[in-house]
Amino acid sequence: MANFKIPRQEMPKQEPGERRRNYDEVATGYTPEQAKLEAERCIQCKKPLCIEGCPVEIKIPEFVKLVATGDFESALAKVRETNFLPGICGRVCPQEEQCEARCVVGKKHEPVAIGRLERFVADWEIRQGKVPKPEQLSPTGRKVAVVGSGPAGLTVAGELAKLGHKVTIFEALHKAGGVLVYGIPEFRLPKAIVARECEVLEKLGVEFQFDFIAARTATVDDFFEMGYDAVFLGLGAGLPSFMNLPGENLAGVYSANEFLTRVNLMKAYRFPSYDTPVQVGRQVAVVGAGNVAMDAARCALRLGAEEVHIVYRRSRQEVPARKEEVENAEEEGIFFDFLMSPVRYLGDEKGRVNAMELIRMELGEPDASGRRRPVAVQGSEFKRAVDMVIVAVGTGASPLVPRSTHGLETNKYGYIVADPAIGKTTKKGVWAGGDIVTGAATVIEAMGAGRKAARSIDDYLRTGQW
Fold first, then answer.
1. E strand or H helix that includes residue 232
2. How would you write the pLDDT of the chain (466 residues) with one tens digit per residue?
3. Cα(288)–Cα(320) distance, rounded to whole angstroms?
4. Is-contact 364 374, C-beta < 8 A?
5. Nearest partner of 214 among 426, 411, 432, judged by Cα
6. Is residue 233 a contact partner of residue 416, using CB atoms and an 8 Å limit?
7. Which CATH code, of 3.40.50.1220, 2.70.98.10, 1.10.1060.10, 1.10.3720.10, is assigned to 16-128?
8. What element of type H or E holds 239?
9. Closest among 260, 262, 271 to 184, alpha carbons compared
């Protein structure tokens, strides 16, 4: 039975003054004693709503009970029954909006820290120095091509490999992980964690082919000619979005995609050890307030910026980033400029940005998102000196694969149309999931889509029924 006298265990982390100067992970994780104490807070509900809040349906009470008894190995095995990426999900998933939001303990007390416990068991295994091989069914002789190695692609590959199918992942970049490696900084998700989760897949026989650009190196139809029986498209949504403002083409105005890819995947933060230069200004503005904006702002700070401002057109209440990430950014000295929006960017005689014009905003009636619509306050424009701008206002779908694939339907925004329950597209033998279907969403939602698609693909491979 849960002990309600035990307070929710706080995660130890680096001090702000120290961490803003390094790329080491901010949160350092639970000790075994803390993990067991936190797990003892679970009341083992007969109808665990937390599972309903988990897109990959982890048997949360069972794994938490095993943590409480100190059987960390069995706890992780229980998690891995439905989640191939526990070390990743425990770090970057918005548990406060999903499993923990449904936690019954959280009705009167702080919810059980499910995400932190998931991270703990994954990290515990790493310290044991073992890479497990999950149980696997006999080979079926069927082959599946998975395009993209982000969370959706990795999940569908792992699930299908467990079921005995031969899976090859085709990745455009030179490392596996998709947004996990090019988008999320080292201090939030160490790349060694991603690499290790991929090792688990390799133990199952999953093969990786890198520098493979779908629609250029091969089309979707080519995969069938190459002998694959099914194709899963986990392409992500990495097409940068801008606001079409004057001056966006000035030097020093980056998309968050380009900036974070340089810093994370191409290791610009370790220049000159890695030959990827990135010029960071002294006065940096980041436009947007999602998790990507927080990542970009905190990277700029660590790369030497004297002052970094988050510019957001709504108020603090509407900020879409995780509360934890906003708090970390504020602790590190990032400034938040609410109810402001850029109008244009100004440059010097060399074509480099040196100022931005902003306009103050006020909130009107709610829009389609349910948030109050920002309305410009006429005549409130003012200028601010900046020497770098990072635009983090969302992403879109790359048109390469849809344009080269006959019979693959997309919606008006360019995202692939797929059945949300099973991932089937309008083209026979082709499934899709993750951000290429939904638009930018969470890691765990992409993984949930991968699990659903894997079940449908397995059924198709065994029955031949589309």
1. strand 230-233
2. 566 789 999 999 999 999 999 999 999 999 999 999 999 999 999 999 999 999 999 999 999 999 999 999 999 999 999 998 999 999 999 999 999 999 999 999 999 999 999 999 999 999 998 888 888 999 999 999 999 999 999 999 999 999 999 999 999 999 999 999 999 999 999 999 999 999 999 999 999 999 999 999 999 999 999 999 999 999 999 899 999 999 999 999 999 999 999 999 887 777 777 777 788 889 999 999 999 999 999 999 999 999 999 999 999 999 999 999 999 999 999 999 999 999 999 999 999 999 999 999 999 998 887 888 999 999 999 999 999 999 999 999 999 999 999 999 999 999 999 999 999 999 999 999 999 999 989 999 999 999 999 999 999 999 999 9
3. 9
4. yes
5. 432
6. yes
7. 1.10.1060.10
8. strand 239-240
9. 260
Quote the tokens at residue 209. Answer: 């082919």
Beta strands in 71-203 (DSSP E): 143-147, 166-170
CATH number for domain 143-238+396-463, candidates 3.90.380.10, 3.40.50.10490, 3.50.50.60, 1.20.950.20: 3.50.50.60
CB 170 within 8 A of CB 153: no
358: left (phi over 0), alpha (psi -120 to 50) or beta: beta
List where CATH 1.10.1060.10 sits in the chain.
Answer: 16-128
The encoded tokens of residue 176 equal: 């596996």
Domain 242-255+263-393 sits in CATH at 3.50.50.60
Residues 6+ apart with CB under 8 A from 286: 256, 293, 296, 297, 300, 308, 309, 310, 311, 389, 390, 392
- Considering the chain, tell me which residue range(s) the CATH 3.50.50.60 domain(s) occupy: 143-238+396-463, 242-255+263-393
Residue where the block lists tokens 């295994």: 125
Task: For the chain, state the CA radius of gyration.
Answer: 23
Decide: 130 and 199 in contact? Cβ < 8 Å: no
Return the H-helix or E-strand segment holding 324: helix 323-331
Pick the closest to residue 388 from 190, 265, 256, 193 (CA basis): 256
Cα diameter, the chain? 70
Q: How many CB atoms neighbour CB 396 within 10 A?
A: 16
First to last CA, the chain: 48
Structure-block tokens of residue 63: 């794994």
Structure tokens at 344: 């244009």
| Phi-psi group of 6: left, alpha or beta (phi > 0 → left; psi -120 to 50 → alpha; rest → beta) | beta
